[in-house]
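Hi there,

I know you've been waiting on this one. I reran it after we fixed the sequence typo, so this is the corrected version. Both the input and the resulting structure follow.
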Amino acid sequence: MNERLEYLSLMTDDELLAAFGSELLAEDLGGRFEPIEAAKTWLDENLPSIRTDICCSETLLRFRSGSSFEGLEEAAAIMDVLASVRKYPAVATMSVLLARRSVRLVCDGHECP
């Protein structure tokens, strides 16, 4: 399993948000916010695009239909999808945040084309 994901999985939600926000601010993508606020704002603004990319991926569609992941497998699957799209910052940190919320919940109600 990815050592970065294992490390991130030990963080609290606030620590993850702060890390993600710091990465956004370092890339000048967060505007004039504190790290946690920058992370929450960015995630809220980009959630529709994120949902389209992860919820409609073949791997995560299988998970949504009943297969289950164990441990960090869900975060790893999300990270693979986000990394392949190549338009998101800090994909490892974002993947752990999304996995904690569960793909089923993040994708609930999202229709794939």
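Quick highlight: The chain has seven helices and no strands.

Best,
R. S.
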